[in-house]
């Protein structure tokens, strides 16, 4: 009888330590686990403290005055059930092999039910989708009309005047062809907008409420902010969350219950998605005390907010969006931006005069306004936090759902606001000027003084967080640092980069420091091009920084500093960069956590140089302090909606226009999901129209094969994008972009590349391809044994590799397409020849199993009727067998043959792993302004392999 995997009897020995849910195949694994884990790391307790139902409410909802309070809604169910640890917790293998196993929570199991909430038997199929004909494109006439509206509004974001112009051109072309102008799909932009607005799906309307101060008025009269009315706009988050759960796009990428995941071989725990963290498990432990919740699905709602500036040229350019997401959806879907994050509100940002901005009463008004607004906006979710409700999921099943407020992701200034920290911050604002507040304490007075919203407010002496109105929610345990703003923009750009400039001024004086800073800018500008890497043609000397600018600068900044600052500063930057990459890995293991702890320790060790040189007087900086908490947060949590709609508005009273734009986008997304779920978006518009015509007149329009996309693009066409996000299933593909007027034969390519012995290199390559079992070194093989090649070749300007890179921006399957260039004229500016990692030893790990090569050309040739794609490369040699101890990056240098000529070779395209990025070792000599980024690979003699180019490179070259 075949083994039934469902019984999982191979994992039959549990760990007996309280709260630990490891299971083992044998006593040896159990002993190893006990000796290695429990003396060092105590297991997280299975239960946390009781939920905070009875804590003080926020100011907006005050006891009996709350009009939305229902009987018993705020009472905690104290009925006890046996601890989950008292019954065996199921251990199940996960994935394609038995390398991983999971312990799933035994109580809230995500069981399917019927629309009335009655649980279905195991294996029951979901109810079929509602009946819908294949040509029901409501409110659109057909696929072509929908695709046009989606392209104009979502993808191209076409302005109204250009939409009208495009439709006029279309009408004119129909008239000239003798067709009826009524065949134009839309008459003008209003017709398009009206059609989108008639979409019955995704219709979560925007609501608003006004906020006004109604407290005591000073004897001398009201202050300016006391008479203003503040508007707050919001979506019903309850409906937004339900739409996310119903989305079929990622139905198979949703975790229905918390779990703990382990590697079978070493019983090492790992964290990948939110539901693998201890926070979700502990929340479900609390919920499961009520037996009526058993079998339900826990849905954690994640919140985030961030003041956004859309322009510096208009009068009112600040917006304060509130975002919401659900974290049952796995990280790969969030990386692919598949509708898992939604704007659920725009909070008010009251302002006042400088005279009154620092007053304590204005600060309290802001905080009370902020928390009361959040509590009001989220109120519709509260009933479902204690009593299960039935929700339709994207896989077609219904399930009972229990909601919970999850982590709130935000920057430090808003963390202060969320935690209701008042006294210390107020004292600092009163005593310090703005520069010192930012430099030494990381506080922006304008932001501390400009947040919040709600209805009619009186100022209370004590302000409570909005989470006090909701079960199992404590804001002090839910605040999560924002990696982009708090670490990358804060600790890296605003602290370390600024401190380096101060160090250079203190050490060398302003005049010499300016010379050095100019040279650092030239070094940054000289970084070679790389797939997906933003370049800095003028260095980093510009004022308007974005988050993308800070992330891009991180990748190329470290080698530019070398030679101008002490090695402890280099090591400080290295530690911070490694920390940022480690915490963003797709899968984090216990070994990864140890590495994260090591980077934190090194960062705090080496950054003391800034205090020793009197660049800073204190490290009491919240942004840097938050680094210490990431290890704990990973164990617990593992953690385009403003600027683009604003640009599409008239910029005058733009918020209303932005809300309409976001609502239209939601409707188009909902339509696409519905059409896709019913199988109506298979193929392109063209294939759909041709199929319809062919059905009407068989044979007359049967030319669909002529419209299949070619493997190669038109001659001379080059890719404009360096990388793509791929939603296809996991696969590895290679495509080529053919060049124009490139050499048609080996002798001509030899002349074009200035490689005289290219023909011999091709002969050697063909011998190796024909004789893979021959162990002789090519130099030992007589030249006469090498085959001649006199046929034609095809030369290509670039190749695109599709590979698995889940830690980088990628599709749902973790796939990313990267373009590697070998082009003599790229974007009509200069040659572009990228570097690559080439697999030379498949048994070795990382850089020890790869070499770096500079691609001179891609070409293909025919041998024995077989097409062979290959590349001409110049090799680099590794310097040493380990990375540089200061920068943490491997070093390479150009390789030379015995005749002291560059070492060229022909390699098969399949040996290329992915693109590599090299940065010069600049030394201490000033870089000439005449040296550009496309020169450096030919000029410099020593390079760093940039492991900070992206997460994939970090994993390879660490």
Explain what this protein looks like in three dimensions.
The protein starts with 12 loop residues before the first strand and ends with a helix. α16 runs antiparallel to α17. It has 958 residues and is an alpha+beta fold. A hairpin with a 3-residue loop joins β23 and β24. Mean pLDDT is 74; it is low at 1-12, 39-87, 311-316, 422-431, 437-462, 637-647, 700-721 and 725-734. The protein is built from 28 helices and 32 strands. The strands form 5 sheets. Strands 20, 21, 22, 23, 24, 25, 26, 27, 28, 29, 30, 31 and 32 form a 13-stranded antiparallel sheet that branches. Strands 5, 6, 7, 10, 13, 14, 15, 16, 17 and 18 form a 10-stranded mixed sheet that branches.
Query: Which structural class do the helices and strands define?
Result: alpha+beta
Number of strands: 32
What is the terminal-to-terminal distance? 47 Å
Main beta sheet strand tally, sense and closure? 13 strands, antiparallel
Number of helices: 28
State the shape: globular
Task: Classify the beta-strand content into a percent band.
Answer: 15-25%
User: Percent of residues in helical segments?
Assistant: 25-40%
Poorly predicted sequence stretches spanning 5 or more consecutive residues: 1-12, 39-87, 311-316, 422-431, 437-462, 637-647, 700-721, 725-734
Gyration radius (Cα, Å) is 31 Å
Q: What is the average per-residue confidence, as pLDDT, rounded to a whole number?
A: 74
